[in-house]
């Protein structure tokens, strides 16, 4: 299989698992108990790093934008959402 096909399959599976995890977490007692806690999933995108054999599409700086944006959300920001290179 080509690396492009494997990458597409990996992204699809990763998204499916992330969505399932987030859905389960929303229904979880944890969020009901700690109602002031924001829980969001962040995917930085396909970043050029050693782990991707430098085949990524984004620089490290570009990949860092989404995680930093979510980390700096205000206390009344969104929760139970997914951020994927939205910056």
How many H/I helical runs? 3
Main beta sheet strand tally, sense and closure? 2 strands, parallel
Rg, Cα atoms, Å: 15 Å
The percent of residues in helical segments reads 40-55%
The low-confidence runs, each spanning 5 or more residues with pLDDT under 50, are none
What is the first-to-last residue Cα distance? 32 Å
Please count the beta strands (DSSP E, at least 2 residues each): 2
Write a structural description.
With 87 residues, the protein is mainly alpha-helical. The protein has one domain (3-84). It has three helices and two strands, in the order H-H-E-H-E. It has a two-stranded parallel ribbon with strand order 1-2. The longest helix has 25 residues, at 3-27. It is flat, with a radius of gyration of 15 Å. The model has no long low-confidence stretch (mean pLDDT 77).
Key features?
mainly alpha, two-stranded parallel sheet, 2 strands, 48% helix
Describe the structure concisely for a colleague.
By secondary structure, this protein is mainly α. The chain is built from three helices and two strands; from the N terminus they run H-H-E-H-E.
Helix/strand layout:
Blueprint: H1 3-27, H2 29-33, E1 40-43, H3 60-71, E2 81-84
Parallel strand pairs: 1-2
Keywords: NADP, Oxidoreductase
Protein name: (+)-neomenthol dehydrogenase-like
Family: Belongs to the short-chain dehydrogenases/reductases (SDR) family.
